[in-house]
Amino acid sequence: MDSDTGKTKEKAFPIVGIGASAGGLEAFEQFLRDTPADSGMAFVLIQHLDPTDEGFLPELLQRFTRMKVVQVEHGIRVKPDCVYVSPPNRDVSIRQETLRLHEPPAPGELRLPVDFFFRHLADDQGERSIGVILSGTGMDGTLGLKAIKGKLGMTMVQDPASAKHDGMLKSAIDAGLADYIGPAEILPAKLAAYVRHSFFGLRQGAAMEKNILGALEKIFTLLRTATGYDFSRYKKNTVRRRVERRMGIHEIDRVADYVRFAEENPQELQLLFKELLIGVTNFFRNPEAFQVLKEKAIPELLKSGTTGRTLRIWVPGCCTGEEAYSIAIILKEALDKGGHQPQLKIRIFATDIDNDALDRARQGRYQPNISTDVSPERLERFFAKEESGYRVRREIREMVVFSIQNAIMDSPFTRLDILSCRNLLIYFTPELQKMLLPVFHHSLHRHGILFLGPSETIGGFTDLFAPLDVKWKLYTRRESAVPRGNSVSAAV
Q: What's the helix, strand, coil split of the chain in %, to 5?
């Protein structure tokens, strides 16, 4: 989600994560040979290496660049115009621009060093994060690129036709996560152009335009015409930053020029629409929150005796389904553990406005690297292993109904036991949040549970919701004598 690392623009410099596996050495050489030594960027190269490797990669790569190439050591601080290479048998993370080394997973467990670093890079650098995938087999890097795009960073993928191995490349491209696709030797020029606009030119130029708000209104109108959805009640800064990211990708300096570009290129409006919907989602995000939901909230709900023979749950903004399936899994575990009657059914209504994401969610197919977030026990019990990864087992898939729904405009679900709206409200203006929270209260059964994201709050609606767990934003519905707030109606 949106973040601000707090660094000043003068001190900021791009940190570029580059991941590869088989065929990576040649791709690294091609990339570095065409990267200027004074680009002002730092590069962290992550490659799948044999644990017994001697670690000669820095020496090999030094032949192709005038930048300093070093092997990562624990605690080394990243500097511009330097290349840092991951050592054998260690995973690399970054925090406050300092690289750290970690023991890899045990032998036999799935190791995903590119995903591991990219996720930390996204958390550390936010919208300044940049991820590049070069030649390699498997699917490592896809979830990491998704995290980077979720933070408004930029992603590049080598053209599969130019690579020795295309597994990692096709995985990222098929997931729709590549901002640029091209041969390894072409990517540095595109990267330099993006950095020139996004880091050192675009923000100052766009911020000084007097008509920025008017331009955003035009963009809202174009999006509404093209997609049928109104983004005018999203936080202006959220929309603006995504527009600026698209401007940087197209090397457009003035927002008025971007408006004209979008008017003349309908495909750009669809891409911007997708970007506005991007959320960082994975199974059991914030695992402790799901543990509290399972061990504290659900038993309290069942103890209240207010539920019928069907537990009703609504997950608005469900994206590709990971959160809805996570809730289905913990409900199944909680009910089995508590010895509840087998006739008690679970019905989860998972909704979104992104039809492509819903199609993926209905299939319930996910890549092998979900093992990063799902325990081996849950993978064995609730997922079926397939050639391309894992598929959620039918008993869990049948608990969830995925459908198109606009949480802002369409009529809400009612008589709910749980309403899980995590990391959606943070996109909306305070006025829209104040309108939606009373609607959520109306949607819940007596003693129903509201589950928010860690950065969200009920604001002043303490008369509508009582805290169940303050840290993990779990609330129970209060009985309110006087309803307040505006209702949401009139489907789009």
A: 40, 20, 40
User: What is the pLDDT, as a whole number, of residue 254?
Assistant: 85
Residues whose CB is less than 8 angstroms from the CB of residue 71 and which lie 6 or more positions away in sequence, other chains included:
55, 57, 58, 84, 85, 86, 87
Cα angle, residue 454 at apex, residues 176 and 315 outer, rounded to 5°: 60
Residue-level pLDDT at 54: 63
pLDDT one-digit tens code per residue, 12-46: 799 999 999 988 999 999 999 999 999 999 999 99
- Tell me what the pLDDT averaged over the chain comes to: 88
Structure tokens at 245: 């990211």
Nearest-angstrom CA–CA distance, 17 and 193:
17
Question: Which H helix or E strand runs over 441?
Answer: helix 430-443
Contact of 383 with 283, CB cutoff 8 Å: no
**pTM, whole model, 2 decimals?**
0.84
- Residue 64's nearest CA partner among 79, 43, 47 is 43
Q: Which residue from 234, 271, 149, 235 is spatially nearest to 261, judged by alpha carbons?
A: 271
Confirm if 433 and 403 have CB atoms less than 8 A apart: no
- Amino acid of residue 421: C
Confidence of residue 487 (pLDDT cuts 50, 70, 90): very low
Per DSSP, the three-state class of 25 is helix
Query: What is residue 473's three-state secondary structure?
Result: coil
- How many angstroms separate the CA atoms of 41 and 80, rounded? 5
- The pLDDT value recorded for residue 103 is 92
Rounded-to-integer distance, Cα 384 and Cα 399, Å? 16
Q: What are the b/e assignments for 373-396, b being 16+ CB within 10 Å?
A: bbeeebbeebbeeeeebbebeeeb
DSSP 469: E
Pairing of strands 180-182, 154-158: parallel
The reported pLDDT for the residue numbered 343 is 64
Among residues of the chain, what percentage have pLDDT more than 70? 88
How do beta strands 389-392 and 383-386 pair? antiparallel
Residue type (1 letter), 443 = S
Q: Give the burial class of 372: count Cβ atoms within 10 A of its Cβ; 0-12 exposed, 13-18 middle, 19 or more buried.
A: middle
Summarised one tens digit per residue, pLDDT across range 408-449 is 889 899 999 999 999 889 889 999 999 999 999 999 998 899
* Alpha helix (H) residue ranges in 19-166: 24-33, 57-62, 113-125, 142-150
